[in-house]
Amino acid sequence: MTTVASESTSERSESTWQTLRRGLALSPELRTGLAGTLALALVAMVGRAAVPVAIQQGIDRGLRAPGGPDLGVVGVVVAATAAVLVVTTMCGYLMMRRLFTVSETALAGVRVRAFRHVHDLSTLHQQAERRGSLVSRVTSDVDQITQFLQWGGVILLINLGQVVVTTVVMTVYSWQLTLVVFAAFVPAVAVIRIFQKRLAGAYGVVRVRLGAMLAAVSETVVGASVIRAYGVSGRTAARLDETIDAQRRAQQRAIRTSVVSFSTGEIAAGLALAGVVVLGVKLGVDGTLGIGEITAFLFLVTMFIQPVQIATEVLNEAQNAVAGWRRVLDVLDMTPDVADPGERGVDLPPGPIDLCFSEVTFSYPGGPPVLVDVNVDIPPKTRVAVVGETGSGKTTFAKLLTRLMDPSAGTVLLSGVPLDQVRFGSLRSRVVMVPQDGFLFDSTVAENVRFGRPELTDEELAVAFVDLGLGDWVDGLPAGLATPVGERGEALSVGERQLVALARAYVADPDLLVLDEATSAVDPATEVRLQRTLDAVTRGRTTVAIAHRLSTAQAADEVIVVDRGRIVQRGPHEELVNDPESVYGLLFASWLEQTR
Amino acid sequence: MAGKTSRDVLIRGIRVLGHAVREEPRIFAVAVGGSVLYHLLIIGSAYVVGAVVGEVVVPALESGQADTRAVVLSAVALVAVSLGRVLGMFGRRLGAGFMQYRLQASYRRRITRRYLELPLSWHQRHATGTLLSNANSDVEAAWFPIAPLPFAVGTLVMLVVAMGSLLVTDWVLALVGVAIFPALFALNVVYSRRMAPRQARAQQMRAQVSAIAHESFDGALVVKTMGQEARETNRFAAQAGELRDALISVGRLRGVFDPMLETLPSLGTVAVLLVGAVRLSQGAVTITELVSVAFLFTVLAFPVRAIGWVLAELPRSVAGWDRLQAVLTATGEMAYGNTTLDPQDGRPATLVFDRVSFGYPVAEPAPATAPAEPGLSTEPEAAARPVGVPERAEVPEPAGPVPVLHDVSFTVPAGRTVALVGPTGSGKSTIVSLAVRLVDPDAGSVTVDGVDVRSLTAASLAGTSALVAQVPFVFDDTIRANVTLDREGITDDDVWAALRLAEADGFVAVLPDGLDTLVGERGAALSGGQRQRLTLARALAGRPRLLVLDDATSAVDPRVEAAILAALRGDRSTPSDATGTAGAGELPPGASILVVAYRRATIALADEVVYVEHGRVVGRGTHATLLGSTPGYAALVTAYERAEAERERERAYEEPAPGTPAIRQGEEVDA
């Protein structure tokens, strides 16, 4: 909804040239050997003018030579033209070869940079964009640029060159007739440009409708079980049809505009030909022009029309390509608001990590504060549980702690170092968070667990599962560690996915482990077992567990109770539970009621 | 061998085009009519130009005075030809475009209809990305040649006419045409054949790049929290590099053929000049005819390439068409029966599982239809794995379904609540799917009110039972639409009542547009707990007679869950259903409940507990009975108490315990 609106406005805010300049600045590789490529293109273009010149020479000097047709002259003209054509063909080959190599190499670089940049953006930015639209930044948008550079760009270049060459030849033959041709084409080009603008808008609508249709299809596929369980396939089908037809209508509107735009060139060509005949005959009668020249002119007009028409078409593509390029550049220009300090940063001091929140406040852009004035110190090697109701801000606490987001005010310190000064290399290897939704990649259990530590052997992974008390579970899988987990891990149950995600974090061997409801879908017996084994294996490290199962709180050294964005209580479970009227007291009473 | 295969592709491609023509014959006729007009006028223009030069320009220059009428006539003829071509172009372009878009829309509709008809088991076998590209890029690929098709047909007509007129003009000049046009055609054919496998490979690489980007961005949080951005980038860069190489190889081929295709007609024109000069000196042709033929070669060059475009797109079109057919002809839809259950005034239904066994079919590693050509395996999702992350892992032996449930039998009597308890991965979610017929059992039966669920109509099934899944799925729509799903007879009052019962009324009430608030893609604007309560409300709003909850309150805080359960229980225990049907805005009448649960509170509400382990029912009975009889069950449900007790014991031994953080702040204490 809002993303669509902002996308279309940003498309209009910058001129085509600005985008191209930005694009070239970002891919200097595109300039590699540009002069040579252009020179080759120029030679290739000259070939286009060879035929009309040959006709003119052949007619005027050969066929209509004073002493009757002179076949020798015609033979020389034909041989020379054939030689020119062979040379220009080879130049054409060399030019395309260079162009393809340079543009593909440059844009593969852009693709990879944009990909990396998306990962460098903060989770806030990542979530603000539709997943599909981020993917198109590194796929179809870049494809559009290369397609344009190679198909459209070459054609545009050659054709514009042809227009120039043709104009020069025409002017040499007769400036008067050239003026006639221009009189027909200049207004046509103006009209075409107007339609071009409309066309850009029409294609913008096509893209938006396509996005909406794909979203509807993906909802149908991903939500298949809900649609089936509620018997609402009729409603879903109606929605699908609506988006499919909306896209078709947008396409049809666009092509209508494009046809009108294209026919303008055709009409101009007819008028130009007619004008050339009328004026040409008059000039010929006056003795200014020969028959060969007039004939060549009729050829030249055709050679002038074709490139103008083709360039018109290509300009349509160019609009799309420039829009695509702009979207890629916009992603690259988005400054990650949670940036790696890189060289300027420091590493976390070795050893167990302590953490400190100092006057930390956080709110989402334009939203009310989620955390307010949070001050908390957690000494090293402590096991802390953070509890609170849904929406109290406990997940935000975890995200600030792992620097997935930066606080709006205040500072988070790890081992005394302000978090925004810690290099990511150090931070991500020492501090690992297990999110509630344990996303798994579409490979095996083993590959997922060694995600952070590719060097681990299967034996080491097996040992890790045994350490966590999950050896039996792995053995029960159809192919053990080699069991495929399916797309997003969906071949495993939700609880099983959490087990794999936990193992993945455990083998990463962090000094600060942050668990964000990481075992919420695991059965109590397994959870309790996991908790004990985790306690054992993380002894000597700091753990922060966001939990709504208060069993976690009971087992922790200290409990931090968050309520409406503030820390309202802290201390060991035994202490906090003594005040039955407190937030924690009430939560715990409810918990007992649930579990006993 | 390769030649034979491409001929097959050619024939099949033409057949696919035949389908298209049969589906949209009228629009196709308009497009081809326009195209033929356009192309004939191209030839016409050559002759008009020839005539103008020969009949008007030459006499005028030779006589030294212009025949005004002839000059005006020439001008009018040239403009008329242009207008005729514009007319033809309108017909062709609009016709071709409309035909292509209509076919795309029509096949997208058919494909998505199949998605809705095919069973969940079919969906589970196919990757989301594959299904998306079936509806998107495969439809596009299948109908891509439609756009240049009318143009190509017109070109063919034009070629025939051009050759005929050449023969009429002069048989020697026609020989030049006989040499050039077939050569041009042959060059085009060779070009498309050699291009097809390269294009296919590029397409495949493109799909793989896209698959990696999709997965990597989907797992962005994991990538970030594990600091694996560089590794993911390398994985992507490797694939992007392969794509680059594939595209460069496409480009090299183009570099060879494109200039040749351009030069050939030009060579033809100069050949005409040479041959024409000889014939002119022999007096066999006039200068008019010579100019016409030379002009013809110039204007014919470009359109002939349209045939090449169609040929080049055919292999892609065939591959796309095959994948569409794989979906359209997929079988195994779970046909609904035609029995309708008596709604019994909304009184609770009885659910019976009778010796049910079930195994999940193994995911299909390849598309159902093999690609037409060895080099054309363009299945987008296959082989999209990078180095280090292996391919969608090899299907483990045995190839048959992986058994999940064995001989599961239990009953949820009308109006009763049965809790389904079992360790992680024991098959609970599968039982739930069977209960609402998302999947069908391999053996045994599931019945509601004594009727096998397989014989129920879709409406009766959906009207009787409701499932709240473990992972809530929310549509990109308003709150209201998410609750009602456009089911009939659910008023706003009902929606609010359901939201109230699901404890979702609070957060909905403060949303900017209330029930009309859009929740975003997958409910992105809501928290996990809110999404779960919304889906709970969705189930309640339909007043199901059988409610199936798959650990549906796991993302909800204990207090909220307690409230929801109390409401459900309180509602069910009130004798409201005895006094009559609940009015609008009232809580729904009671339902039989099958609930997957870990929490004791939930279990406590159940009249009976079914305990499963490794896909088998290990124990059935009340909580108290199972505690005594089934050790696995006891271990599971008393886990927290035992853990607490153990901690107490440890604390007693370890006293003094490691100081509480509050008092040891800042100082180092070793455990």
TrEMBL record, chain A:
It is a multi-pass membrane protein. Keywords: ATP-binding, Membrane, Nucleotide-binding, Transmembrane, Transmembrane helix. It is found in: Cell membrane. The chain crosses the membrane at residues 30-51, 71-95, 148-169, 175-195, 259-281. Coiled coil: none annotated. Residues 355-589 form the ABC transporter domain. The keyword RNA-binding does not apply. One of its GO terms (molecular function) is ATP binding. Its main location: membrane. Residues 35-320 form the ABC transmembrane type-1 domain. PANTHER family: ATP-BINDING CASSETTE SUB-FAMILY B MEMBER 10, MITOCHONDRIAL (PTHR43394:SF1), ATP-DEPENDENT PERMEASE MDL1, MITOCHONDRIAL (PTHR43394). This is ABC transporter ATP-binding protein. It comes from Plantactinospora alkalitolerans.
TrEMBL record, chain B:
Residues 645-654 have a biased composition (Basic and acidic residues). Residues 384-639 form the ABC transporter domain. It is found in: Cell membrane. Coiled coil: none annotated. Keywords: ATP-binding, Membrane, Nucleotide-binding, Transmembrane, Transmembrane helix. Residues 29-316 form the ABC transmembrane type-1 domain. InterPro entries: AAA+_ATPase, ABC1_TM_dom, ABC1_TM_sf, ABC_transporter-like_ATP-bd, ABC_transporter-like_CS, P-loop_NTPase, Type_1_exporter. Residues 645-671 are annotated as: Disordered. The chain crosses the membrane at residues 27-50, 70-90, 142-165, 171-191, 290-312. Its main location: membrane. Gene3D superfamilies: ABC transporter type 1, transmembrane domain, P-loop containing nucleotide triphosphate hydrolases. It is a multi-pass membrane protein. It holds the Pfam family ABC_membrane. The keyword Nucleotide-binding applies. GO terms for molecular function: ATP binding. This is ABC transporter ATP-binding protein. It comes from Plantactinospora alkalitolerans.
